Amino acid sequence: MIHDSKERYGSISKWLHWLMGGLILWQFLKFFDRINDGEHWIGQTLVPWHISIGALLLVLVAVRIFWALGQLKQRPRHDPATAFMVKAGHLALYLGMALLPITGILTMIGNGYGLKVFGVQLVAKGPEIAWAASLGGLHSPLAWITLLLVIGHVGMALLHHFVKRDDVLRRML
């Protein structure tokens, strides 16, 4: 089943969810740069892909939003008692997923580093742009907030599965 239904999410929604979840976890490995100045396996092997993976996530966020909007009428419904909180939590996650790569790009361009994605120079190195660097300064605080949102998201999924014993998690598996 490619499309979503009232009972469960379709294969495209699931694929986007789990692919992005894995890539976001990879992005969170950047926090290990704060340990020993990144002089370890994670810092030297996985973290160098941070900018490219961030750019890919920005594209996937756009794809996922358009896909979700197209599936809106047939998507599984939330418990009316908690629907507002569920929607607010997901909106916060989507904002984090969109704003993190945008502020990352602003950091790179604003500090004059240019933007290289998967080996392709998209924006050449140039002069510093104060307003872009300033907005890019929100990248790190947004990363911490998004990390907390992801932990909450996973925690709620596990709560639904193991405590409430409903089908909320199964709809995305």
UniProtKB/TrEMBL annotation:
GO biological process, one term: respiratory electron transport chain
UniProt topology in membrane: Multi-pass membrane protein
Names of required cofactors: heme b
TM helices/strands, residue ranges: 12-29, 49-70, 91-113, 142-163
Main location, first listed in the record: membrane
Subcellular location(s) of the protein: Cell membrane
One Pfam family in the UniProt entry: Ni_hydr_CYTB
Gene Ontology MF terms: electron transfer activity; heme binding; metal ion binding
Taxonomy, superkingdom: Bacteria
Keywords from the named record: Cell membrane, Electron transport, Heme, Iron, Membrane, Metal-binding, Transmembrane, Transmembrane helix, Transport
InterPro entries attached to this UniProt entry: Cyt_b561_bac/Ni-Hgenase, Cytochrome_b561_oxidase, Di-haem_cyt_TM
Record domain Cytochrome b561 bacterial/Ni-hydrogenase: where: 8-173
A single GO cellular-component term on record: plasma membrane
Protein family (similarity comment): Belongs to the cytochrome b561 family.
Entry-linked PANTHER family: CYTOCHROME B561 (PTHR30529), CYTOCHROME B561 HOMOLOG 2 (PTHR30529:SF1)
Protein name in the entry: Cytochrome b561
